[in-house]
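User: Sequence recovery, please. Input:
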């Protein structure tokens, strides 16, 4: 399984006075099993790009090839593509609508024409995968759950479709620190269990640095960086010029380096930064 985006361009309100180019000649690829992080300032084109990946939007030009199928070509059955590519919008809990958690999670699989037995199996598995107790929540109204639990149920509804690509648009937005941490850990566990392509959009650089194999940076509709977290976050001045921050640990280490401390390593996480600072302090004491 892979996704290959080739030179796509998308224009909103084309031909009208408020015409806007949202994506301009965008290309990238995501390989099987990769966790891809996408960052960019508000309005850079992140959400527009995501909506192209399962056919919700059509590009003005270019190709999007999912598992060998060009989903921009005529005659493609988008229903089949959307079974392979699951998209979780920002604040997905606003899309909950059924009277019980089990019915809400079952909605997608049931519409695939699966048997009642297979649908039930998928619902149980998905609810467990997002860290909820099936027997405890199955008959509960999703609207009676906490914010973090609602989001888990909404994500379970997509997971139950068994997508080969899972796309998450700001999955931790608006959550308290504990729920934020829990949802991020849940994303990691789902990715590990399903071994799918996971594409994560976030404004939280700590999250992106912690879990991504690959990072894309979008600026004014262009992909301006494409590399590992270490490669992308080493380009400090360029990121800051675009209004983007560094991961907290990298920012701390950057300031210490400017103050003269010889700290080695990429220091993308707090643990890496602590090790680097400790090693630098030991070198100082030996001199």
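Assistant: Recovered sequence (287 residues):
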């Amino acid at each position: 399984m892979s996704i290959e985006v080739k030179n796509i361009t998308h224009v909103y309100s084309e031909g009208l006075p408020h015409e806007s180019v949202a994506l301009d000649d965008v290309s990238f690829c995501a390989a099987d099993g990769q966790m891809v992080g996408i960052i960019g300032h508000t309005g850079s084109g992140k959400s527009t790009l995501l909506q192209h990946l399962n056919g919700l939007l059509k590009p003005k030009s270019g190709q999007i090839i999912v598992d060998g199928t060009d989903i921009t070509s005529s005659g493609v059955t988008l229903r089949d593509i959307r079974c392979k590519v699951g998209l979780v919008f920002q604040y997905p809990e606003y899309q909950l609508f059924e009277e019980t958690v089990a019915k809400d999670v079952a909605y997608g699989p049931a519409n695939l024409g699966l048997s009642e037995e297979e649908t039930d199996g998928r619902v149980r598995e998905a609810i467990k995968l997002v860290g909820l107790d099936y027997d405890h929540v199955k008959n509960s109204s999703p609207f009676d759950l906490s914010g973090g639990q609602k989001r888990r149920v909404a994500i379970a509804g997509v997971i139950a479709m068994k997508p080969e690509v899972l796309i998450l648009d700001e999955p931790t937005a608006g959550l308290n620190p504990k729920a934020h941490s829990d949802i991020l850990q849940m994303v990691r566990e789902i990715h590990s269990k399903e071994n799918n392509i996971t594409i994560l959009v976030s404004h939280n650089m700590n999250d992106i640095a912690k879990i991504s194999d690959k990072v894309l940076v979008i600026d004014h509709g262009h992909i301006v960086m494409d590399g590992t977290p270490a490669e992308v976050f080493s380009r400090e001045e360029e990121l800051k010029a675009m209004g983007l921050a560094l991961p907290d640990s990298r920012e701390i280490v950057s300031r210490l380096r400017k103050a003269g401390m010889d700290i080695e390593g990429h220091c993308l996480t707090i643990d890496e930064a602590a090790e680097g600072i400790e090693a630098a302090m030991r070198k100082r004491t030996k001199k």
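Residues 177-194 form the longest helix (18 residues).
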